[in-house]
Amino acid sequence: MIKYEATYIVDPNLAEEVHNGLLDRISGTITDNGGNVIDVKNMGRRRLTHEVKGKIEGIYICMRFDSSPAAGAELSRQLKLAEEVLRGLIIKLN
């Protein structure tokens, strides 16, 4: 298992249920591929340094998890496809 950290920015104008549904989908992607979620931090609403998809603010979510490389690649693909996500980044931790 490899340790990863995923940080993504969510559209702040969406309802709380949509944010929770996205978190459930992402956690499900990790666990379905044999990984487990270690920690999830909601860092709150913050101003973006530049406009992204017409938004100047976003809700930052940071998630640490263990998984196989295939699960990390699938999560990256899911973040790119999710319309609720303004930006996403996954890094491998040492």
Mean pLDDT: 90
Class by alpha and beta content:
alpha+beta
User: CATH H level: which superfamily?
Assistant: Ribosomal protein S6/Translation elongation factor EF1B
Overall 3D geometry?
A: globular
Q: Distance between termini?
A: 12 Å
Indicate how many domains the architecture comprises. Answer: 1
* Portion in strands: over 45%
Number of DSSP helical runs: 2
Strand order in the sheet with the most strands? 2-3-1-4
Assigned CATH architecture:
2-Layer Sandwich
State the helical fraction. 25-40%
Number of strands: 4
- What is the name of the CATH class? Alpha Beta
Give the SSE layout.
Blueprint: E1 2-10, H1 16-32, E2 36-52, E3 55-67, H2 69-81, E4 85-92
Antiparallel strand pairs: 1-3, 1-4, 2-3
Helix pairs in contact: 1-2
Q: Can you characterise this structure?
A:
With 94 residues, the protein is an alpha+beta fold. 32% of the residues lie in helices and 50% in strands. The protein is built from two helices and four strands, in the order E-H-E-E-H-E. The protein has helices spanning 16-32, 69-81; strands at residues 2-10, 36-52, 55-67, 85-92. A hairpin with a 2-residue loop joins strand 2 (36-52) and strand 3. Helix 1 (16-32) packs antiparallel against helix 2 (69-81). The model has no long low-confidence stretch (mean pLDDT 90).
